[in-house]
Amino acid sequence: MSEKTIDYSKGIYDARQLGTPKMLILGAQHMFAMFGATVLVPLLTGLSVSTTLLCAGLGTLLFHFLCKGKVPAFLGSSFAYLGGFTIVSNDGANPENLPYACAAVAFSGLVYVLFSFLISAFGIRRMMKFFPPVVTGPIIIAIGLILAPSAITNCQSNWLLAFVALATVIICNIWGKGMVKILPILIGVLVAYAVALLTGAVDFAAIAEASWFGLPVHKESMGLFAIDGSETFISALFTIVPIALATMMEHIGDIAAISATTGKNYIRDPGLNRTLLGDGLATTMAGLLGGPANTTYGENTGVLALTKIYDPLVIRIAAVFALVLSFCPKFEAIINTIPTGIVGGISFVLYGMISAIGVRNVVENKVDFTNSRNLIIAAVILVCALGFDSVGGITFNIAGMAVNLSGLAIAAIAGILLNAILPGNDYEFDEGTNDGEGASLRV
């Protein structure tokens, strides 16, 4: 099929019509969208970057297998677990504790599996009574807003490069034609990187020192996982497993966001039970391999919204790229030369798209904010998510062990409880398809 006969504006659900070369480029774009955030987690926690890429690739493919290949989601490393890793490793002072943290991550994935079974046992309508749009919408909004400061911080390192990247993405997306219009992220990075080269903002020293091939999983670099009856392991469990409450809600919000973006209701088909099972088992696998927890990535949802290429095959291509690159430390070093300012410029768009999709989710589901009940739930969720996130969440002791709940976890719990307690919960989950058009920057 020629490019002239393809209507990009309506969304493309079968990328094969674009041809193999274009699909590979699209997969590379998704791979780049997740790369910066995914590798940042191991850099902050002391885990292996290569192992993290391996877990992201394998986890994404496992997720797609369990979801019948229907959901265009990429699973990268979760930032929600950073606090847990910091506590367990004593802010990096005790790296020998990281295997216990990885084991706790594996157990946290089983929380997803349990909830998946509950949906299968009691039905999605009964379970989703706890997660109406008045709860999930504000949480989607909060996810984007929580990420926003990170984008600004990255931009501050070099506002020129951030502006070039941001401007290129907008120009390509609004005025571009053909492949230029659906590759704004990759083009934005390349153009900004060229400017970085001209201004001397790129350091190539690490590339020469890196080898071309290396195994992504080896005990010497990150210690795999450790399970025993020690106080360190028990403390790691109490610290990290509760974080699953936040990431599970993030998952529900992300699946709702992807559904709103693509116009297909993935909560109904293949079902929230399957998506939770896929995400949970991917996280368990990552922990057992010595990597950070996986989570559905909002960055890739932003790419879906910008490009309107909704075929999950493109995401699986990105996963294969991640697998291949996990064996190449040289490429990792090359990617790490991309200045932080460029990442900030790209994130500026993607993170905003997430919150915008959350707003759309509330609007399309006709949530009535003249109703005090709905207004209170949304208000509490947003203040809890943003307010508690700004102070590092809540830390309390259980049997002499510190447990931390992030702002998003607190918001999720508060929203669910308020929705269950306050009278007037007349929400009925609609398993019909979502026919809405995906969010886009196009005018």
Task: Provide a compact summary of the structure.
The chain is mainly α. The chain has helices at 20-45, 49-66, 82-88, 98-122, 124-128, 133-156, 159-175, 179-182, 184-198, 205-209, 219-222, 231-240, 244-262, 267-289, 298-307, 312-325, 329-335, 340-364, 372-390, 407-421, and strands spanning 75-77, 294-296, 394-398, 401-405. The protein has one domain.
Annotate the secondary structure layout.
Elements: H1 20-45, H2 49-66, E1 75-77, H3 82-88, H4 98-122, H5 124-128, H6 133-156, H7 159-175, H8 179-182, H9 184-198, H10 205-209, H11 219-222, H12 231-240, H13 244-262, H14 267-289, E2 294-296, H15 298-307, H16 312-325, H17 329-335, H18 340-364, H19 372-390, E3 394-398, E4 401-405, H20 407-421
Antiparallel strand pairs: 1-2, 3-4
Helix pairs in contact: 1-2, 1-16, 2-14, 2-16, 3-12, 4-12, 4-14, 6-13, 6-18, 6-19, 6-20, 7-9, 7-18, 13-14, 13-15, 13-18, 13-20, 15-18, 19-20
